TrEMBL record:
Short name of one Pfam family: MDMPI_N
Protein name: Mycothiol-dependent maleylpyruvate isomerase metal-binding domain-containing protein
Organism: Mycolicibacterium arabiense
Every Mycothiol-dependent maleylpyruvate isomerase metal-binding domain range: 17-136
Single Gene Ontology MF annotation: metal ion binding
Length: 208
């Protein structure tokens, strides 16, 4: 298993706790993910869990396992239950001997892209630590990850490259924002194109 496996699990479970607090009327709220309301973000998060789980089991090359449209209705009907089931699926799939060396097919990164399991789980770790924050600030809920999770997250997240490709449609992250933060999680958020000060009020004023 990757060295950060326990911290990855903690981050995913933290995202489950945050999503469990989502109320139905909040699903139309805008999020820090430009162009996505909360229902769309949760649908994406649910689909990605199942996609990574399929990749861990050797089926990642099938584009259908990543398709978010499959979960639109389920998320609308039961966001917390649908999301928790997806999180359980991916954690079970990752809890396998030798998973860090196993090849993961990742068609979202390009045709025939295959990466080692440790790298794929690293991407997943970064995604869900940040998406948990996205959901929390969207609904105005408190959010904090344990120090050991942030310490494990920082080198993985800061290794994500920046560049013109982040301007492309479908890029997982916007361009990195300038940072003078001493808070490690805030540095991660800025490196991944998030403003740590984002709020619903901010979104309304700026149109973000």
């Amino acid at each position: 298993m990757p060295t950060f496996a326990p911290q990855h699990c903690t981050a995913v479970l933290a995202s489950v706790t945050v999503v469990d607090a989502v109320a139905p009327h909040q699903l139309t709220l805008p999020t820090p993910c430009a162009g996505w309301d909360l229902a769309e973000l949760l649908t994406h998060m649910t689909a990605q869990h199942h996609g990574f789980a399929a990749a861990a089991r050797g089926h990642g090359a099938d584009a259908d396992v990543w398709r978010a449209e499959r979960f639109v209705r389920a998320v609308a009907d039961d966001p917390a239950g649908t999301y928790a089931a997806a999180a359980r699926d991916v954690l079970a799939a990752f809890d396998t001997e030798g998973i860090d060396e196993k090849p993961f097919a990742m068609p979202e990164f390009g045709p025939n892209v295959v990466i080692p399991g440790e790298q794929a789980i690293g991407f997943h770790f970064v995604d869900y630590a940040v998406h948990a924050w996205d959901v929390a600030v969207t609904i105005g809920a408190p959010f904090a990850l344990p120090d050991d999770v942030i310490a494990a997250l920082v080198p993985v997240a800061m290794a994500v490259p920046d560049g013109d490709f982040r301007d492309a449609d479908g890029s997982p992250f916007a361009r990195a924002l300038p940072s003078a933060d001493h808070d490690d999680f805030a540095r991660v958020l800025r490196h991944l194109g998030r403003d740590p000060g984002w709020s619903q009020a901010y979104s309304t004023v700026t149109g973000a």
